[in-house]
Amino acid sequence: MPDNNTATDKTGSCLCGKVKIHVAKYNRDVVGCHCQQCRKQTGHMVAAFNVLDSDLTITGEDNLKWYAASDDAKRGFCDTCGSMLIWKSNGADNTSLMAGCMDSPTNLKLVGHIFTADKGDYYELDDGLPQHEGTGGII
Ligand SMILES: [Zn+2]
Ligand SMILES: [Zn+2]
């Protein structure tokens, strides 16, 4: 099994298991988003990797509920257990998925932080990874 972005056939799910995820191949490693929308929705921050839609299979999609926090993107979560699973830019051919929903071993790695200017005031970012005040051109 190759590591990181070339890892294949990974699975994940929401907390209750009604929504299941299968990823054939990763498109981008994990980025931490500290924007206010992600903080409010998750209670802390988002840690999301990215896949091409052609490499993503979702089972139990009927259980997904969508919320558009902005005109640019929507957020998918399980309508039974509330797990945030998906962040999707409108019209994009790729999908960001929450790393915490994936089953171990994920072969994923946190590689940086975005919207650090909006981060909560109760924690520090001192892991030495690249920090971007805005999107950093990543999303
Ligand atoms: Zn669920
Ligand atoms: Zn965010």
Description:
The chain is mainly beta. It has one helix at 36-42, and strands spanning 8-13, 20-25, 28-33, 46-52, 56-59, 64-67, 73-78, 84-89, 94-98, 110-114. It has a single domain, classed as Metal Binding Protein, Guanine Nucleotide Exchange Factor, Chain A (Beta Complex), CATH 2.170.150.70. Strand 8 (84-89) and strand 9 form a beta hairpin. The radius of gyration is 14 Å and the shape is globular. The chain binds zinc ion (ZN) (2 copies). Residues 14-16, 18-19, 78, 80-81, 83 line the site of one zinc ion.
- Main sheet summary: 7 strands, mixed
Helical fraction equals under 10%
Class derived from helix and strand content: mainly beta
CATH class: Mainly Beta
Give the SSE order as H and E letters.
Answer: EEEHEEEEEEE
The DSSP helix count reads 1
Total strands: the figure is 10
Shape: globular
Q: Quote the CATH topology.
A: Metal Binding Protein, Guanine Nucleotide Exchange Factor, Chain A
Overall number of structural domains: 1
Taken as a percent bin, the fraction of beta residues is 35-45%
Mean pLDDT: 94
* Rg for CA atoms: 14 Å
